[in-house]
Write a structure and sequence with these properties.
The complex is a heterodimer of chains A (336) and B (304). Chain A has 336 residues and is of the alpha/beta class. Helices cover 30% and strands 22% of the residues of chain A. Chain A has 2 domains: 221 residues, Rossmann fold, CATH 3.40.50; 88 residues, no CATH class. Chain A is built from 11 helices and 12 strands. Chain A has an 8-stranded mixed β-sheet with strand order 6-7-8-3-9-10-12-11, with helices on both faces. Chain A has a 4-stranded antiparallel β-sheet with strand order 2-1-4-5, covered by helices on one side. In chain A, α8 links the parallel β7 and β8. In chain A, α4 packs parallel to α7. Chain B has 2 domains: 224 residues, Rossmann fold, CATH 3.40.50; 79 residues, no CATH class. Chain B contains 12 helices and 12 strands. An 8-stranded mixed β-sheet of chain B has the order 6-7-8-3-9-10-12-11, sandwiched between helices. In chain B, strands 2-1-4-5 form a 4-stranded antiparallel β-sheet, with helices on one face. In chain B, β4 and β5 form a beta hairpin. The longest helix of chain B is centred in the middle third of the chain and has 18 residues. Classes of the chains: A alpha/beta (336), B alpha/beta (304). Chains A and B meet through α3, α7, α8, α9 and α10 of A and α7, α8, α9 and α12 of B. The structure holds adenosine-5'-triphosphate (2 copies) and magnesium ion (MG) (2 copies). One adenosine-5'-triphosphate (ATP) sits at the interface of chains A and B.
Chain lengths: 336, 304
Amino acid sequence: MSSLLEIQNLSISFHTPRGEIEAVRNISFSLSEGEVLAVVGESGCGKSVMCKGIMKLLPACAQIKSGRILVNGKDITGYGEREMCNLRGSFFSMIFQNPMTALNPTMPVGRQIGEAVKQKQPGISKKALQERVLELMQLVGIDSPKERMKLYPHHFSGGMRQRSVMAIALAGNPRILFADEPTTALDVTIQAQILDLLREVQQKLGTATIFVTHDMGAVARVADRVAVMYAGKIVEIGTAEEIFYDPRHPYTWGLMQSLPAFSRGKETLHTIPGMPPTLIHPPKGDAFACRNEYALAIDYEEEPPMFPVTDTHYAATWLLDARAPKVTAPVGRGRK
Amino acid sequence: MSAEMGKEILLDVQHLSYHFPLTKKMEIKAVDDVSFKIRKREIFGLVGESGCGKSTLARCIMNVYKSKGGSIFYKGLNVCDAGTFRKNQKMLQTSRQMIFQDSDSSLNQRMKVCDIITEPLKIQHITPKRGSMRAEAEFQMYYVGLDAAYLDKYPGELSGGQRQRVAIARALAMEPELLVADEPIASLDVSIQAQIVNLFKHLQKEHGFSFLFIAHDLAMVEFLCDRVGVMYRGKLVEVAKAGDLFGDPRHPYTKALLSAIPVPDPVIERARKRIEFDEKDFCCEGTLVEISPEHFVLERGKEG
Ligand SMILES: Nc1ncnc2c1ncn2[C@@H]1O[C@H](COP(=O)(O)OP(=O)(O)OP(=O)(O)O)[C@@H](O)[C@H]1O
Ligand SMILES: Nc1ncnc2c1ncn2[C@@H]1O[C@H](COP(=O)(O)OP(=O)(O)OP(=O)(O)O)[C@@H](O)[C@H]1O
Ligand SMILES: [Mg+2]
Ligand SMILES: [Mg+2]
C-alpha cells in the first residue's frame, strides 16, 4: 500500500549573503488518504518552508538539498514548474498563513474564488460559476454571500478573509490540503466550525490535510497524528493520543507546559528558557540541548536518532536510549 | 488586585458607533453604541466572534478611523475632536501604540528589521534610551525573544511568528502608556505566546502599561486580563472582571462563546459539545445593566 504523500529525508536550505540557512533538516513522514497530520513547533522552525517546499512555492534562493517527495508512489522531486502547476490546485492546495497577502487586494473576493474554480473547470458556464462561488462561500460560513462577493478583501474582517482563502483552496477539490495556520485569525466558534468543516470535507472527499498550527486545542480536535518540529527537524511524531498523553521529547513537554491550562492560578506562564538556535550554523548535537533541563552530556555531542516508542510513535531524544537515566514526564497522562 | 489598581481612568469610550456602507441600502454597524473604560495599569480583554467589530473599535480608539458617533476620552482629552487631537498629536502618537492584526502587511518589506523597530522613534524625534538606535532595537528584540542576528534581515526572510514579534517590538520601543494589541499572539507558538503574555504582565506590573488586548484565545484572555468585554455584532453584550465573566457568564452569547473554548486533550475535545447561540436571543436595542458589582450585561431596554 503506497501512501498519498511520502517525504524521505527532505532538507531545504536558503542561500543568503549571510550564509546558508538550513530551514528544513532531514525530514521524513508519510500521509495516507483522509488523514489529518498536525504540525506544531516553535515559530521559525520550518513548518511553512516544509509545506511550500513540497509544493515548490519557495523563492529561487531556496534549494531542496536532499531527499525525495513521492505522491502516490511517484517521485516528483525533480518536477519543473509546468508539471507542478498541474498538481497545484487539483492535487494539492495550500491555505497560506497570512490571509491578507494571500488575497489580491484589487479584486473582489467573489471573483478571486471564481478564478480558482475556473482553473479547474475552464469551460464552466457563467451561471454555474456564480452558483459554485456562492456554494463555496456558504460552505466556509460567509453570510450574505450574494452581497459580499462583490466586496474587496479590505472590506472583510480578518476571519472572513481567512474563510475566503479557504474557499479558494477548496475550489479545486484537492487531494491534499496544506493548511498553514488556517484558524489563527478566527474566533473559537468559527474555528470549531472550520475545523469540523475540514474534517467533514476530508471524510466526504478523502482529502488528506497537513495542518500547521500553534493551537493545541485545535490539534486535539482534528488531528489523527501529530508531528512536533524543532529547528528544522521533526523531533517527535505519533498519534494524537500518543503525543498528548505520552509525550517523550522534552521539547514536546515544554510546549504542553506553556499552555495556560498548565499554569492555572499562577502569576506567570511556564516558558521554555532561551531562544531557538538560528539555522545558519545549527549547533552540533541536539539543537534543543541548551534549553533542555533534561539534557545529557551526549546531547551536546551527537544528534539523537529517531527512537521508536511504538509502531506509530517516534521521538528523537537520547532519553529514550537504554543507557539514559529514567525521567518522569512533567506532562501527559501521569499528571491527570 | 483590582481594589488597589486605582480608579484612575485612562481611556473612556462613550456611545461609540462606526458604520460601513455595504450597498446603497445596507450598512454594517461594525461598532454600535459601545461604552467602556480602561483604567490605568489595567489589561482589558476584548473578545467576540470574527467580524463583530473588535478591530474597527480598536482603530477608532487609535484615530485610524474617525468615529461616526459618540466620544473617546484619552487622559480626559476628547480625541474624536479634531482640534484637541491636533493640539496633542505628539503625545497621542507616542503614548498610544497599536499592534495591528495582520501586522505582517503593516511591516515595510523594503526596510531592515532594525529600521522598522526604530522608525517610530525617528519619526517622533525621540532620543533612544539605550544610547543608539541599534542598541534600542537590540534591547527590544531581546525583550520579545528574537536573536539580534535578525536585525539586518528583511521581513520577507522571517517566519510569520518572527515578523509578528518585530511588530510587537516596534510598538514596545515607544514605551506607550496604552498598548492596543489586536491579536498580537495568535501567530506565535505556545512557548513564545507564554513569553509575550508574561512580558505584557511584567510591563503592566512594573512599568504601569495599560492594554486593550484583543484575542480569540479565550484561555489566554482569562489568564492575562483584569476585565473582559464580549462583543457581538458591534455591541458589547457583557463586561466583567475576568474571573466573573469566565466563572459566571450571563449573556447567552457569552455562554455559547465560552463553550467553544478548545481543550488540549484529544478525548475530551472530540467529545465536547458546544452551546449554540440562537440569533433570536439577541436584541440590539438593549442597554448594559449592572447585575452585580462591575458585572454588566446587555438587557432588553424598556424604551427599545
Ligand atoms: N525567503 C527566506 N529567506 C531566508 N530565510 C528564510 C526565508 N523564509 C524563511 N526563512 C527562514 O527559515 C526559517 C523557517 O521559516 P518558516 O517560515 O518555515 O517558519 P515557521 O515554522 O512556519 O514559523 P511560524 O510559526 O512563525 O510561521 C526561519 O528561521 C526563517 O527565518
Ligand atoms: N473597510 C471596510 N469596509 C466595509 N466593511 C468593513 C470594513 N472593515 C470592516 N468591515 C466590516 O465590519 C465588520 C467588523 O469588522 P472588524 O474587522 O472590526 O471585525 P473583527 O471583530 O476585528 O473580526 P476578526 O476577529 O475576524 O478580526 C465586519 O462585518 C466587516 O465585514
Ligand atoms: Mg509559518
Ligand atoms: Mg479583527
